[in-house]
């Protein structure tokens, strides 16, 4: 059976960067680049008209930033998964993007293979965080007054934040996939969320992730 092609929109204010990313994606059999945008408003317009599977979104752009564009797309019911691809890793940037509805957050120093894996994960609805960003999340553990997760729930959520699937989490923790799903259900209930991406975003906000 033919592999499903992932339709990608690239958003960055630097044409050279857009061209570079587009060229890399063009080399991958199951990717196709359907458009490019140079700022947030154009990203919103093209996302709504082209309906890509994944939007690679820079954050700080003249004419309109990425976080605002993500929030607008979320409000307008866009089904596209937004994967932030940026050089910025401040808590403010990370929180703004994830709170707005981003599926993942990757830094531009990522290797091509990491980017490709993140795009596929985002298209599947999985949350993806750059290792450097995940480290920042973990460093915020003690800042929260939110309802505590169990140690096992924290371990599961940390692996979710790193883009692991349920099967991969089960293998890493030596438990069944059913057990992972149960733990995730408890995490969702405690954080008041309904999906993995929201769990990661809320964990950022409340600082409940840990090692």
TrEMBL record:
<keyword id="KW-0597">Phosphoprotein</keyword>
<dbReference type="Pfam" id="PF00072">
    <property type="entry name" value="Response_reg"/>
</dbReference>
<dbReference type="GO" id="GO:0006355">
    <property type="term" value="P:regulation of DNA-templated transcription"/>
</dbReference>
<dbReference type="InterPro" id="IPR016032">
    <property type="entry name" value="Sig_transdc_resp-reg_C-effctor"/>
</dbReference>
<dbReference type="InterPro" id="IPR039420">
    <property type="entry name" value="WalR-like"/>
</dbReference>
<keyword id="KW-0805">Transcription regulation</keyword>
<dbReference type="GO" id="GO:0000160">
    <property type="term" value="P:phosphorelay signal transduction system"/>
</dbReference>
<feature type="domain" description="Response regulatory">
    <location>
        <begin position="7"/>
        <end position="123"/>
    </location>
</feature>
<feature type="modified residue" description="4-aspartylphosphate">
    <location>
        <position position="58"/>
    </location>
</feature>
<dbReference type="GO" id="GO:0003677">
    <property type="term" value="F:DNA binding"/>
</dbReference>
<feature type="domain" description="HTH luxR-type">
    <location>
        <begin position="142"/>
        <end position="207"/>
    </location>
</feature>
<dbReference type="InterPro" id="IPR000792">
    <property type="entry name" value="Tscrpt_reg_LuxR_C"/>
</dbReference>
<protein>
    <submittedName>
        <fullName>Response regulator transcription factor</fullName>
    </submittedName>
</protein>
<dbReference type="InterPro" id="IPR058245">
    <property type="entry name" value="NreC/VraR/RcsB-like_REC"/>
</dbReference>
<dbReference type="Pfam" id="PF00196">
    <property type="entry name" value="GerE"/>
</dbReference>
<dbReference type="InterPro" id="IPR001789">
    <property type="entry name" value="Sig_transdc_resp-reg_receiver"/>
</dbReference>
<keyword id="KW-0238">DNA-binding</keyword>
<keyword id="KW-0804">Transcription</keyword>
<dbReference type="InterPro" id="IPR011006">
    <property type="entry name" value="CheY-like_superfamily"/>
</dbReference>
């Amino acid at each position: 059976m033919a592999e499903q092609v992932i339709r990608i929109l690239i958003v960055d204010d630097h044409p050279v960067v857009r061209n570079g990313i587009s060229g890399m994606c063009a080399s991958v059999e199951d990717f196709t680049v359907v458009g490019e945008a140079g700022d947030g408003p154009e990203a919103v317009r093209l996302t709504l008209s082209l309906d890509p599977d994944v939007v690679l979104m820079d954050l700080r752009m003249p004419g309109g930033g990425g976080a605002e564009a993500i929030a607008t797309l979320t409000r307008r019911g866009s089904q596209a998964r937004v994967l932030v691809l940026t050089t910025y890793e401040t808590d403010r940037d990370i929180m703004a993007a994830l709170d707005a509805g981003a599926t993942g957050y990757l830094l531009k120093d990522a290797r091509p293979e990491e980017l490709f894996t993140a795009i596929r994960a985002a298209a599947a609805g999985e949350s993806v965080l750059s290792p450097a960003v995940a480290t920042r999340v973990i460093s915020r553990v003690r800042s929260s007054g939110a309802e505590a997760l169990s140690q096992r729930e924290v371990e599961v959520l940390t692996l979710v934040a790193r883009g692991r699937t349920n099967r991969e989490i089960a293998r890493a923790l030596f438990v069944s996939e059913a057990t992972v799903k149960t733990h995730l259900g408890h995490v969702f209930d405690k954080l008041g969320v309904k999906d993995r991406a929201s769990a990661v975003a809320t964990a950022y906000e409340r600082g409940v992730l840990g090692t």
